[in-house]
Amino acid sequence: MARKQNGFGNPKSLAFKGAKSANNRIDKIPKVKAAGSYPSDRRFGSTVSRTVIERYDAESDWIRWRKGYEYYVKAAFEDLEQETPVCGSPGAELADVCYNPGLPVQKDPTKPGYNPQYILYEQDATLYADTNFSIDIKLSGWHFSTLNSDTGNHYCIKRTLETPVNMFNVTDVLNNNQAKSDNELWVKGTAGPDAAVLLRSLGERLTDGEVNNSNGEPVELRGKSTEATLTYVLNNKQEPAAYTGKSTYDNPTTVKVTVDLDDLKTYTEANGFNFYEANGENLNKYIGKIGYFPQFYNVQSYVFGQEYLTFKDGSYFFEVDLSENVFSDDANPRQAFYILERETILPPSLYDITDADPIFATQRYASTVEGKYLFQKSDYQKFFGNTYLTAGLVEQQINNTSFPVLPFVIQSVGVHLGKVTFTAEPFVSTLELYDLPPQGETGYLVFAAYSFTQTQLDTDDYGDYYHRIEGPYNNVYEQAVGTPEFSKLVWYRKTNNIDPYDIPFVKVFTNPTTGLRPATIYGCSCPSYSSAQLRMPQTTQGPQQRKINRQRNYPLPTALGRKDYESIGLDAAAGKVQSWQTKQQRASFNLCKHSICAMFSDHLKLQEPNTYQTLEAREQFGAKLAADIEEVGVEFQEAYRRGGITMLEIVFAIGQSINYDDVELAYLVLNADEQFSANIELSATSAVAQRYNQLL
Amino acid sequence: MASTSTNKQPLLIDRVFNDPVQTDGLVSGSSNTLTGASISYDIAGTNSAKVLVNCTTNDGGIVEDMYAISRGAIKKALFYLSSASDYLRSEQAIYIGSITTTATVGDYANVAALPRCLAPVPQQGDTTGLTAGSPLKNQALYIPTGKALWVTVWGIAGQNNTNCPIVGAQGGFY
Questions:
Q1: Do A315 and B46 touch (CB under 8 A)?
Q2: ipTM here
Q3: How far apart are CA A381 and CA A386, in angstroms?
Q4: Distance from the CA of B74 to the CA of which of A303, A392, A430, B108 falls in 20 to 30 A?
């Protein structure tokens, strides 16, 4: 029972929060603390709870925009460069340009004596390599100094499409109430010539722009292009046309390849080198090398009842067992099997692997790929209404399968009766099931309603171009179709936060004749963009300083981390990366100050967002921004010193820009470090290692 | 538990329900042309069903009658108890009875058999056929907390697109 107090009791109990002070002095009022809950002891399981306003302030896109803009105008970034191979070295044979140390450096290619020591980082890569729907892409980048990464750098990677692609022709944008309540927008249309890519593009940003119209002008010049994140592809019955399953840790995917010992003995490289003989006929020397099938994505047609897939139904998941045996010989050759030296600092799936020189290649082999894959029913059930989704239903629907066999590390080698079997380290991977539509068939695409952006020429309301005309042109329209030197200087404006359900309706996908294709992406390795933290054991504090947060230094899944199924894949890379990215974040138009700055640098102006902070936060932000820019110089010193420590950040940024899913991204992250360490010991004679040289 | 649920006799209910549903398009997943030993009413996989009475999150209920009104086709409405109320899964669904409708539109059919329940019969009725000393018992279907009563129609996709009956259940929640 509470004790009765005389009068009003203790006068302190009547004080306002924040007005309490030592000795009850009211002339010295301590600073009011944040309204939210910020536990000082940030142990595993402790949770930071922000108030609504604090959350709004912290998540404001405007902050990122403002910082990105400031980085751009203050030039607080650098283009990503790589060392030019030295003339006469093996790497120079593959490169377009080489560096002669005996001559003076000349960076300008238009001037005589062009002799660059460093060139802009531009890397060709291929998505879905060696399939009939492969897409050539080009990667380039920027780097920014930071204290929040091991290397002192965050990398922003731009991915552009080199191959013109038409995946889908939009005929109708649907105003569907159910879709609206699910935060989705459905469009109806017909499958384009590259619909096979469309089914592999879930989570990809698609655009109806970045292409010229029939007049040879970019569609953004006099109109608008729309960009959004694809979340589902539906067939003409409005049922999913693509299902993605993940293998589990209990049953990872295994790969075995059996080849003739005689083929190993006789295989010689172009320069006459025989790996088998050179290593004293020791088969164990192949352990740790990279086994590789050129088709990362094994695409196969599927007819109901075929034996290589076994469907099993469950209450909330269904399981598909994969057991694929491939036999290839001279009479019936399939894709070749290669063994590669670990030659580059990048994992093989990130560059054009056809440049690599194999230590073994054959078309006579037998291979087995086995795995069990789980499919989460709740991801697809909503498209079936009352009908309960079962494995049987999917089995009858699909006509195509795809499973990636990414380059694998050889774990063991066995020999029996003249046959050598290479076994891969078991790995977690994905299996995709497709209901591939024939070209011209009606289908539906589902886009995340919160992911829409539109791009147009940067003009005012009256259509007057905001910027100076560059080059020998009279107006911006001439400049835009002029030589690349000047056309790339035309400023376009991207507007994000387009709500397609706004009234009056914003018209989206207004270019019906151009088709849809993957949009240019500016991916970044920073936590703000990726909602993921890469490991950073020793950046924010030196060895003499106290580590305030071990988890930040060595990220492991947190109490607020993702659920089991979602985290399959990235869990395997615990310790190197942890992610708190939700499905909604993944499907959003992701931004960070670095990617915004990179867009500005590319003459793509992101419209100033309207999520302006509250006044108090805005005032604090001004001071913080000034300090942030002040520090950039010092941070760059650190970034230069640490730049070569690891490739983790850049690999992660590239993976983000290629739209790798969690499983593939984890695979990259896991391999990146190992690959990098191996590369340090490389001999200087490796052409491929020099072709993909040290990135700065 | 509803505040009035305490110390209640088995048939004293808190509030009544009567939920008829239209069953066009519902299928149990096994063909309605099967005969003899091949006949199966079990949920085997893909099906389409509706919830009649949902007691997964309340105090349970009692069904005094289940009925079907024909819309012009001979159909067999199948009833299941399941622990889930979102979809009828084979692992969770137990078949508990059926009603067959006639081809005459508007024909009313009731469930033929329900379990006998604890509530006493207030007055002796027709005792023809009962052996001497047999107690007379009421019949009703309890739906315990955590279960839902589902209905579907015997058949596979395409067999029940039209003219399927209206099916309902009447009773009360505890």
A1: no
A2: 0.76
A3: 9
A4: A392
